[in-house]
Fold this protein.
Amino acid sequence: MKRALCLILICMFLLAGCQHQSRQTVFAMDTVMDLQIWGADSEKAMEEVRALLAELERAWSAQDEASDLSALNRGEQIPDRTLLDQVQALSERTGGAFDPRLYALTSLWGFGTQAHRVPARQELEQALQTRLWDLGGAVKGYAGQQAAERLQTMDVSHAILNLGGNIQTYGNKPDGTPWSIAIQAPAGGDPLGVVSVVGTMSVVTSGDYQRYFEKDGVRYHHILDPETGMPAQSGLSSVTVICRDGLTADCLSTALFVMGLEEGTQFWRQSDDFEAVFVAADGRIYATEGAALSGCEYEVIAREN
Ligand code: AMP
Ligand code: MG
């Protein structure tokens, strides 16, 4: 009996060791992505995930004139509006802090094209009235979520997809322990801390250090305040959202950045589907009580104040 048990344990150990693994670094959605998948179908799954990323980019890139989103922005009909409806609902949930129709504004600042410049007040006002779709703040989270759904249909035991800082996990880590997701320090250097997540989860960070340009000593970043048209000055450097739903995580990280710590805290207290880590511009860190953050000092945001 004892010998049989030993044999089973040794076999399980060997099988875990021999598990197929596939890892690729790809460039998609204007960012570098690192994809790691474990399981008998890992290679096939890798191809599927890459095809999915290309498909979503073709459909939802505002910069690509051949995309469905560009067709929509030209006033044409598109085959499927489901994603737009979901994003619209999330935008309403955030009171408009996440606004998926700022493409005229992001283009004016040159964030899609690298032709950066500081627009005049009048130009900002005009761009705010021009309601063109831009899903740049949502589509990577959505892609992670869609990828996890595809993995579920294959012989894949675990995966971690780093879609340019948007992390999607699938299953638990190969050794069965939770995933440790490093949070980038806005100032660069070593990670600021680590969040621990169990199973299939999305961990998405929005930060003022991710895309920006400097002009006359002022830093202008890519997360725009839909009320002013200017880069959001909410006192934060980054927000990380941990959520089962990737689309929600991506929309909310952008929205909470715009809202700032106080409003973002109130928003979290009224919600029950995510946790968050806020990094203030002064370097202080605040994490909601379920965020499972470690490796740094921080203030816990409790459910009740
Ligand atoms: P993220 O990095 O997910 O926070 O998304 C930032 C990107 O979303 C920007 O590069 C813009 O394309 C777009 N964006 C900027 N400000 C907003 C906003 N307030 N709401 C929605 N999308 C935005
Ligand atoms: Mg986002």
Q: What stands out?
A: The mean pLDDT is 93. The longest strand covers residues 21-28. The longest helix spans residues 42-60. DSSP finds nine helices and 14 strands in the chain.
